[in-house]
């Protein structure tokens, strides 16, 4: 066999020798890759970024009691700011019920929602997420009608988002053909 120069300039004998792993290079690659893998794993779970806030029992009780005191979009935004991490189960259903009532029966307040949603995109997403499958069909249909035919100019972008969300839900719930 003829000796040739490998990538690092060392002499290697034929194909079989060049295919053998270089233990020093492998160790260097592992040293560099392990910290990166750990950082990637932690950032995906929210541990490294501090995103994971647990809803304590007392917060869940307060959030659930607070549902009865929601009367305006500003009230909902305050609840969102305080208890967003508790948005699950009965609390989430209560937020969905509030959004359903406001968008179907209290449409005259949609301009206030549009103003809050424009200045707080995370609140906008929260409201849109609570247009969901827990809504009564009659209330759902009324909200769609409101967004379609009664949308004030100041809320056009929000009405479009509401209609997009209701269309997504309608498509998901439609029977397969």
Description:
The relative contact order is 0.08. About 65% of the residues lie in helices and about 5% in strands. The protein is mainly alpha-helical. The chain has helices at about 15-20, 25-45, 55-65, 75-85, 90-105, 110-120, 120-130, 135-150, 155-175, and strands at about 5, 10-15. It has a two-stranded antiparallel sheet. It folds into 2 domains: about 5-45, no CATH class; about 55-175, no CATH class. The termini are far apart. The protein contains 9 helices and 2 strands, in the order ββααααααααα.
Spatially, the strands of the biggest sheet line up as 1-2
Q: Compute the number of structural domains.
A: 2
Order of helices and strands: EEHHHHHHHHH
What is the terminal-to-terminal distance?
A: 67 Å
The percent range for helix content is 55-70%
Biggest sheet architecture = 2 strands, antiparallel
Please state roughly what percent of the residues sit in beta strands, choosing from under 5%, 5-15%, 15-25%, 25-35%, 35-45% or over 45%. Answer: under 5%
Radius of gyration: 28 Å
Which class of secondary structure composition applies to the elements?
Answer: mainly alpha
pLDDT below 50 for ≥5 consecutive residues: which ranges? 1-18, 36-49
* Average residue pLDDT: 80
Number of DSSP helical runs: 9
Shape: globular
Number of strands: 2
């Amino acid at each position: 066999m003829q000796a040739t120069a490998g990538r690092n300039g060392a002499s290697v004998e034929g194909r079989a020798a060049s295919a053998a792993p270089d233990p020093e290079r492998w160790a260097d690659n592992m040293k560099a890759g392990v910290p990166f893998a750990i950082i990637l794993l932690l950032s995906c779970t929210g541990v490294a970024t501090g995103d994971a806030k647990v809803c304590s029992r007392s917060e869940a009780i307060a959030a659930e009691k607070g549902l009865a005191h929601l009367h305006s979009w500003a009230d909902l935004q305050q609840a969102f700011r305080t208890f967003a991490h508790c948005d699950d189960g009965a609390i989430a259903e209560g937020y969905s019920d509030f959004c359903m009532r406001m968008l179907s029966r209290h449409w005259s307040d949609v301009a206030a929602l549009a103003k809050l949603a424009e200045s707080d995109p995370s609140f906008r997403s929260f409201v849109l997420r609570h247009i969901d499958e827990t809504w009564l069909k009659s209330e759902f249909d009324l909200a769609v009608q409101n967004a379609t035919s009664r949308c004030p100019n100041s809320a056009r972008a929000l009405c479009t988002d509401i209609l997009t969300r209701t269309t997504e839900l309608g498509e998901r719930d439609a029977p397969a053909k």
